[in-house]
Amino acid sequence: MAEAARRGRFGVWWGLPALIALWNVLMGIRPAETLVGLPSGLASFYGLEACAVNPDPTCPTASGASLYDLERQGVPYAASWEYPFGTWLRVCRADQPGRCVKVVVLDRGPAKRLGRLIDLNKTSFQQLAPLSQGLVPIDIQEVQR
């Protein structure tokens, strides 16, 4: 009898996560990773305004590249703690998968405490959403240059 009771509880234990996952799908709650395995989260933007608090006149990113040079050259850059410097990413709106931008990770950030996955430069962010939106739900995929 005790063995059957343990199996019953074990069966309920395995059924509970499935029930929660089904509830989340029905309620439209997205998991931390999408069904195709792409990391998803929120993106914001940043740019030369970050240089106002940087004492170095070249305003270097964490990788050493100057923000002034990146902006002047039109490089689509991003800041992320999740990817190594030099990684090219395809960032797409989660709610509009056809709206994508390709960026290279050259900086660290955003602040992890803010719950964002990536910060894009302003030009790249504007390809996904207007700057006035501030945050946009995104999916990320590593790509080749």
Summarize the structure.
By secondary structure, this protein is an alpha/beta fold. 26% of the residues lie in helices and 25% in strands.
Strand-residue fraction?
15-25%
Radius of gyration using CA atoms only:
20 Å
Note the quaternary state here: single chain
Task: Report how far the terminal alpha carbons are from each other.
Answer: 62 Å
The largest sheet is: 6 strands, mixed, barrel
H and E string: HEHEEEEHE
Query: What is the number of E strands?
Result: 6
State the secondary-structure class. alpha/beta
Throw out a few tags for this protein:
disordered N terminus, six-stranded mixed barrel, 6 strands, 25% strand, alpha/beta
Structure overview:
- The chain has 145 residues and is α/β, with parallel strands linked by helices.
- The protein is 26% helix and 25% strand.
- The protein has a 6-stranded mixed barrel with strand order 1-5-2-4-3-6.
- A hairpin with a 6-residue loop joins strand 3 and strand 4.
- It starts with a helix and ends with a strand.
- Mean pLDDT is 80; it is low at 3-14 and 30-36.
Question: What are the SSEs and their pairings?
Answer:
Blueprint: H1 2-27, E1 40-46, H2 67-73, E2 77-79, E3 88-93, E4 100-107, E5 118-121, H3 122-126, E6 136-143
Parallel strand pairs: 1-5, 2-4
Antiparallel strand pairs: 1-6, 2-5, 3-4, 3-6
